[in-house]
Amino acid sequence: MTPPSLNESSSILIVGAGTWGCSTALHLVRRGYKNVTVLDPYPVPSSIAAGNDVNKIMEHKELKGPNTDARSIAFATCTRSALGGWTNDPIFKPYFHGTGLILSVYEAGDVIGARTADDVVHRADHTILAAGAGSDRLLDFKKQLRPTAWTLSHIQMTAEESQLYRNLPVLFNVAKGFFMEPDEDEHHLKICDEHPGYCKFIQDPNNAGEMKSSPFAKEQIPLEAEARAREFLRDTMPHLAERPFVFARICWDADTPDRAFLIDRHPDHPSLIVAVGGSGNGAMQMPTIGGFIVDALEGKLQKELKDVVRWRPELAVNRDWKSTQNRFGDQIN
Ligand SMILES: Cc1cc2nc3c(=O)[nH]c(=O)nc-3n(C[C@H](O)[C@H](O)[C@H](O)COP(=O)(O)OP(=O)(O)OC[C@H]3O[C@@H](n4cnc5c(N)ncnc54)[C@H](O)[C@@H]3O)c2cc1C
């Protein structure tokens, strides 16, 4: 089957108005597409979106040497482009500032649209699935996605404290998590626990006898995650270590088997583009990832990305669901 033709009047449906879905909508409109619809069960910003957060880390390292692997080249291509967006694009520029990083060293058939819960079918010539960790519920990704949760907790600062810690570099401890300056509006200091992550394993309805991770929303974090966050604060900002959390939640993103993004036309559904697999690095891409997703829709994704971000279920055969995938810890919780 060949994909339907594409022109500025084609109807394009984006499923998921999170980080990547909104970025895709922006880039579609900028390229002149006139019939774009975005669906999400939650008002934007969705309370379950991984990208709905007070702040995120943007990191970019230029690669050195001729023998750099394809995945690193693809990731650097995305982050270089995103950095350009954060520093030049008038929509994103006001929300970016460079603070630096302090790294602690003491520890180591085809798709014709989508049906919504009210039973309305939203038909489209082209559909883009960008529902983050929720995408795996809508399509069989052949084990390429593992919804994984990390924990967020917020401490209330005073306006004076917030001012004092303005421009605080990202403080990152590989075992206990990270935090950065408080957000300007609410004066919340966010602590994100960088443990390997939590999954909720259930029987996989598509594969008898197999399990899969199934995300759920919760504005709470496990006690052990709170203990780790407080330990980190005791090491870094002891005067804040016992202050109550004013907000906490688990936050889901989807890990691919190699933690490279997954942006491709579906092999069996030619009208469907999948744009998923943020793998813990998708928020920093917001200014430009939508441009790459529209490139995939237009069939002109650049070669540095095309092979790395392709539909690749062969990498997920016999996938070890508990693998930390190079994050700290022995196995996923
Ligand atoms: C705690 C935490 C900290 C992180 N820190 C960073 C960081 O510092 N830097 C960084 O670059 N990345 C970070 N990430 C990763 C980053 O947030 C994600 O990779 C990125 O937000 C993924 O974007 P997305 O659009 O795929 O998913 P999301 O932003 O999660 O958006 C998914 C959207 O799909 C919607 N949706 C869900 N189900 C359905 C459905 N059935 N139908 C329609 N819509 C649906 C949701 O409501 C949501 O709006 C972090 C992630 C977490 C969890």
UniProtKB/TrEMBL annotation:
Keywords: FAD, Flavoprotein, Oxidoreductase. Residues 12-53, 108-294 form the FAD dependent oxidoreductase domain. The keyword rRNA-binding does not apply. GO terms for molecular function: flavin adenine dinucleotide binding; saccharopine oxidase activity; sarcosine oxidase activity. Its cofactor is FAD. InterPro entries: FAD-dep_OxRdtase (IPR006076), FAD/NAD-bd_sf (IPR036188), MTOX (IPR045170). Belongs to the MSOX/MTOX family. This is FAD dependent oxidoreductase domain-containing protein.
